[in-house]
Amino acid sequence: MMKLYDAALSGNCHKVRMLLSMLEVAHEVVPISLPDLDHKTPEHLARNPLGTVPVIEDGDVVIYDSQAILVYLARKFGGDDWLPSDAAGEALVQQWLSFAVNEIWNGPALARAFLLFNRDVDLARCQATAQGALAHLDARLSDHD
Hints:
Layout: E1 2-6, H1 11-22, E2 27-31, H2 42-47, E3 55-58, E4 61-64, H3 66-78, H4 87-117, H5 123-142
Parallel strand pairs: 1-2
Antiparallel strand pairs: 1-3, 3-4
């Protein structure tokens, strides 16, 4: 059975949990405590030399980085409905994954980190970035299923 090495409050882990749920993929969650530095143990570093979460193990396949995991899951369990195989469709998926890594991270995700974890960020800048990113997302979703 697939294993997901997961930290409950991680936004990147949340993305992976959501896709696993939407695709109805059976998996075992292996909790990783970031405060206890579980992600820096020799066992975890053997899975992911960067010492981050999430990580999935699917048989002999081990993948870290949430974006790479999303692509893997979409291709393996969702097929063309989730990850188009044509050049334009695949590029659009990559475009939105990049949007999540840049605009969503630098806006709502950093604002969340400030509020939940007292991270040292410019909250006003994060909120302004979030407003622009979410307006862009709303515009896209307003005319797409």
